[in-house]
Specification:
This protein has 1 helix and 8 strands, in the order H-E-E-E-E-E-E-E-E. The chain is α+β, with helices and mostly antiparallel strands. Strands 1-6 form a two-stranded antiparallel ribbon. It has a two-stranded antiparallel sheet with strand order 2-3. A hairpin with a 7-residue loop joins strand 2 and strand 3. The protein is elongated.
Length: about 100
């Protein structure tokens, strides 16, 4: 019985895992590849089967997105709406003075 539960457990937990960042556009399959804004945190994309134009439909489960690693990240999107995880720069040492180059020294 325990083995059956362990096999089913991933199927129960996967829908509960939320994505961190979501895509923001739907792209059609029409000749012009028409794109429309679509916040996929609470919408999904599809296309009209006749015209190929994109459709953005409300959906509480959300649409396409990605998971980010670590705790410090910022969500952004590419020019075609794909989700991207951005991370602040990390340093292993710090200077006590700031310096620049050229006229900024």
């Amino acid at each position: 019985m325990m083995l059956k539960f362990l096999c089913i457990l991933p199927l129960i937990l996967v829908p509960l895992l939320a994505l961190d960042c979501f895509n923001t556009q739907c792209i059609g399959t029409d000749e012009a590849k028409t794109s429309i804004f679509c916040d996929q945190s609470n919408h999904t994309c599809s296309t009209n089967t006749t015209t190929g134009l994109p459709i953005c439909t409300e959906n509480a489960e959300g649409g396409v997105g990605i998971n980010c690693t670590g705790e410090l990240f910022k969500c952004s999107n590419t020019t075609i709406g794909d989700a991207v995880c951005s991370y602040p720069p990390t340093f292993n040492c710090y200077n006590s003075k700031c310096s620049g180059t050229g006229d900024l020294i």
